[in-house]
Design brief:
Helices cover 34% and strands 12% of the residues. The protein is α+β, with helices and mostly antiparallel strands and 68 residues long. It has one domain (2-58). Strand 1, helix 1 and strand 2 form a beta-alpha-beta unit.
Length: 68
């Protein structure tokens, strides 16, 4: 199983994402998390959109895709 996410903090996550049980790829992190401390929700949405675009074009075939 593979998880695509715009952010993955190895100090604050499930152990399965570190030990290799679940493969995690960080995509969409080219966009900042905030702009001068403002617009965090907008930036999070843009980061998720970038991750979604990556999955659509380069992610391969999946049975289930969840975008939250």
């Amino acid at each position: 199983m593979k998880i695509y996410t715009p952010y993955h903090d190895k100090k604050h996550c499930f152990k399965e994402t570190i030990d290799g049980t679940l493969e995690v790829e960080v995509r969409g992190n080219l966009f900042p998390a905030s702009i001068c401390g403002k617009g965090k929700a907008f930036c999070a949405m843009m980061r998720m959109i970038l991750a979604t675009i990556y999955v659509i074009f380069f992610g391969g075939y999946f049975d289930v895709i969840i975008v939250d």
